[in-house]
Amino acid sequence: MSRLGGHTVTVVRPAGKDRFGDPLSGVIETDVAGCYVQPRTSTEQTDQRDTVITGLIVFMPPTADVLATDKVRWLGGLYQVDGDPARWADVHARSHHIQVALRRVEG
Predict the structure, then answer these.
(1) Which of 8, 26, 72, 86 could form a disulfide with 99 if both were Cys (CB 3.0 to 4.6 A apart)?
(2) pTM of the predicted model as reported, rounded to 2 decimal places
(3) CB 51 within 8 A of CB 70
(4) What are phi and psi of 8, to 5 degrees?
(5) How far apart are CA 74 and CA 17, in angstroms?
(6) What is the arithmetic mean of pLDDT over 10-18?
(7) What whole-number distance in Å separates Cα of residue 91 and Cα of residue 88?
């Protein structure tokens, strides 16, 4: 497995759906080691209510299982995956890493 950094994040995924298509209760949590987490953005809106939007970028190993519908836990915060994870290849067309944008809205 490729190691991009020393961070470990937790991918949080809904448990799935039953045979009728209804969501099952609970979540499946999977730790992903070898990640690198960087700040992306942070904005504050105070017009109607105090809202803080925080963004991160996570570089994950190419074998990580992460979807646009997942959430990611990092340093106690729970972030939504913001868009589709981007799979990057090296110059030899081999999978190199997955870049995932995260977003958390508070307030």
Answers:
(1) 86
(2) 0.84
(3) no
(4) -120, 125
(5) 26
(6) 93
(7) 10
